[in-house]
Specification:
about 325 residues; seven-stranded parallel beta sheet; three-stranded mixed beta sheet; binds (3R)-3-hydroxy-L-norvaline; Epimerase_deHydtase; NAD(P)-bd_dom_sf; L-threonine 3-dehydrogenase; L-threonine 3-dehydrogenase activity; NAD(P)_epim/dehydratase
């Protein structure tokens, strides 16, 4: 019985529906700090929950008889850099409550980490699974602390904690909320609706990315993996592709020839992106639990344009 926090967010809104299909609608409790009339709220159990309220968090998990906690509620990198104290309170306070709840209910546990854990001291190309984690953003500090806290709960209390260092995630179901990689989603909306996009990152800014269907499958594969295969209890590097705004724009042009892009750099998000790797090494995930991907830049772009065109210009 799975409890998901942040179920209305970019990952949560699709993971909730995916898990309900796999495991049964009544076996997946969605929770978020707000409510809307989306499929997530309509298709199965839903609870309003502020993850910084430990009592409510623990009550909701116990009442639902959760045996798996998927903790997604957090502030992403750009928003966190603008509100660092709020980010610490929500990202770390929420995570501690999630881990405590998992410990109390002997639940299996997942929370996403991010390539945001890497800072300028980590190798930019083929960034290894084990390397220097010295991020220069509050979000990165939260993710490194979160990885260490998850590993602590595994070693100290035997909580079955699992995690993935996600790259930028691209999806058509919900708009992302306040990440540095949001350009890779916004660009598709503007390409279809306006034929033009102004990128807040410089054209040669390389960042690892992944299409949401591959991210969802990676979570399921990791959570269903035999625990004896998991050498890393903090979080595994995973990625599908690495591209720049310029490369993404030329791939979009193959489908929308009139599409144009220009660049107006946002120093905060450019600074965050520049501190991250260009492309990370996901071989540990491939070797330990069989991580694989279906979508590369070409396949992702084709699918995003098809799905969004149907949604935006029916
Ligand atoms: C962000 N989408 O931009 C998230 C993610 C690697 C990027 O952590 O903050």
């Amino acid at each position: 019985r799975i409890m998901i926090t942040g179920a209305l967010g970019q990952i949560g809104s699709e993971l909730t529906l995916f898990m309900r299909k796999l495991y049964g609608e009544d076996h997946v409790l969605a929770s978020d700090i707000r409510k809307n009339d989306s499929d997530v709220v309509r298709s199965g159990p839903f609870e309003l929950l502020d993850v910084t309220d430990r009592k409510r968090f623990s009550e909701a998990a116990r009442t639902f008889q959760a045996d798996t906690i998927i903790h997604l509620a957090a502030l992403l990198s750009a928003v966190a850099e603008r509100n660092p104290l709020l980010a610490w309170h929500l990202n770390m306070g929420g995570l501690l409550n999630a881990l405590e709840t998992a410990r109390e209910t002997q639940s299996k546990f997942f929370t996403p980490s991010s390539i945001g854990v890497f800072g300028p001291s980590a190798p930019k190309i083929m960034t290894p699974q084990v390397t220097s984690l010295r991020p220069v953003t509050m979000y990165g500090v939260n993710k490194v602390a979160g990885e260490l806290l998850s590993e602590y709960y595994f070693h100290k209390y035997g909580v079955d904690t699992r995690g993935l260092r996600f790259p930028g995630l691209i999806s058509h179901a919900t708009l992302p909320g306040g990440g540095t990689t949001d350009y890779a989603v916004e660009i598709f909306y503007d390409a279809i609706l306006k034929g033009h996009y102004t990128s807040y990152l410089r054209k040669e800014t390389y960042i690892d990315m992944m299409y949401m269907p591959d991210a969802l499958q990676a979570i399921i594969d990791l959570m269903e993996a035999d625990p004896s295969t998991l050498k890393h209890r903090n979080a595994y590097n995973v990625t599908s592709m690495s591209f720049s705004p310029e490369e993404l724009a030329s791939e979009i042009k193959k489908h929308i020839p009139i599409f144009t892009i220009d660049y107006k750099m946002d120093p905060i998000r450019q600074g965050i992106a520049d501190s991250w790797p260009d492309c990370i090494d996901a071989s540990a995930a491939m070797n330990d639990w069989g991580f694989t991907v279906q979508y590369d830049l070409t396949k992702m772009t084709k699918d995003m344009i098809e799905k969004l065109s149907n949604k935006l210009t029916p």
